[in-house]
Specification:
The structure is a single chain. The protein has 348 residues and is of the alpha/beta class. Helices cover 34% and strands 15% of the residues. Strands 4, 5, 6, 7, 8 and 9 form a six-stranded mixed beta sheet that branches. One of its GO terms (biological process) is polyamine transport. One of its GO terms (molecular function) is polyamine binding. It comes from Caviibacterium pharyngocola.
């Protein structure tokens, strides 16, 4: 999941300009994780189609959802990148357009194991792009990986003021619930209260919350322990950081980042072309080589070097997959997760 330098980064401020820009059918607006558009990735798309891509940096599913709700019909984005459990939520609430599979021939190249998942049966609203999970990242020169065999290890007093956490309510509650032996997709208010109480005990150990290029803190040396996504570890390694990842014995929720078209999109024709391009073998290979996340494109997977596909911090073992749950939609309970999460961040 995850700063974008190709094209233009458009924030909420820039959205006021979208209405006039949409007079040009040669423009498509992409709202995706900041790490997912490395330099040059979209150059060939514009050369091939004449369509300019304007990119906005997505910091969290919750922020994306709230922004689209707030903007309503004036939303303006053509392609978005929701994580699996948010695909289900947004589809249920009528926020996503149905995809026209006839305009997406790339589907035939995608891994069947990543298609037709419970969050979007038949891939009616989304197509998978990258496969991920969260683990405990550590500096290999300063930390002993045997100290991070369980999620409970993060609660140790020796880590006071040292942990970087992902700025994401589900990620934080996932680790607390797994520590407690509870379902990380629970909707039970009493269990969530208990998980919140556990996170309050963890709060003194938290140095920062960061989901926007979280690998940067490890690259710069600002932190040497914390939660990271598997692709973020690859990015840090590519920059020379001494870093590795542990996946605790309790397992970790698995997720897929997908490409979808919001119901407020103005240029659906270009949106389908962009999705087809981003999921194509050549582009998927470049992206995974850059940021590490396992791609859904089977041809691209075949081309990747063993130095990447055999790195168990980035490409998971079957054992990890077998013992890990999928991150699912929690329905209306998401509001309770968010409420507790904001209270946790505000606490000291």
């Amino acid at each position: 999941m995850k700063k974008t330098t190709c094209a233009i980064t458009v924030g909420l401020f820039g959205l006021s300009l979208l209405q006039t820009a949409y007079a040009e059918e040669s423009t498509v607006y992409l709202y995706t994780w900041s790490e997912y558009v490395p330099d040059g990735l979209l150059d060939d798309f514009t050369k091939q189609t004449g369509i300019k891509v304007i990119v906005s940096s997505l910091e969290s599913n919750e922020t994306m959802y709230a922004k689209l709700k707030t903007l309503g019909a004036d939303g303006g984005y053509d392609v978005i990148a929701p994580t699996s459990y948010y695909v289900a939520k947004m589809a249920r609430e009528g926020m996503l357009k149905e995809l026209d599979h006839s305009k997406l021939p790339v589907i035939s190249e995608l891994d069947p194991n990543m298609l037709d998942r419970p969050f979007d049966k038949g891939n009616k609203y989304s197509l998978p792009q990258l496969f991920g999970a969260t683990g405990i990242a550590y500096n290999t020169e300063t930390q002993d990986p045997t100290h991070f065999q369980s999620w409970a290890d993060l609660w140790k007093p020796e880590f006071a003021g040292k942990l970087q956490m992902l700025d994401d309510p589900r990620e934080l509650f996932n680790i607390a619930l797994l520590k407690m032996g509870q379902d990380p997709n629970t909707q039970d208010p009493q269990v969530l209260q208990q998980a919140y109480d556990e996170l309050l005990k963890l709060r003194p150990n938290i140095l920062a919350f960061n989901s926007d290029n979280p690998s940067n803190a490890f690259i710069s040396g600002e932190t040497d322990i914390g939660l990271l996504w598997n692709g973020s570890v690859r990015i840090a390694k590519n920059e020379g950081a001494k870093i590795d990842m542990v996946y605790p014995k309790e397992g970790t929720p698995l997720w897929i980042d997908n490409l979808a078209i919001p119901v407020t999109a103005k240029n659906t024709e270009a949106a389908h072309k962009l999705i087809n391009y981003l999921l194509s073998a050549d582009v998927a290979e470049k992206l995974t080589l850059s940021i590490g996340y396992p791609t859904s494109n089977m041809e691209a997977l075949k081309r990747l070097p063993k130095s990447l596909t055999e790195d168990r911090a980035v490409f998971f073992s079957q054992d990890l997959i077998d013992r890990s749950p999928w991150q699912l939609d929690v329905g209306e309970a998401v509001d309770l997760y968010e409420k507790y999460y904001q209270q946790l961040k505000a606490s000291q």
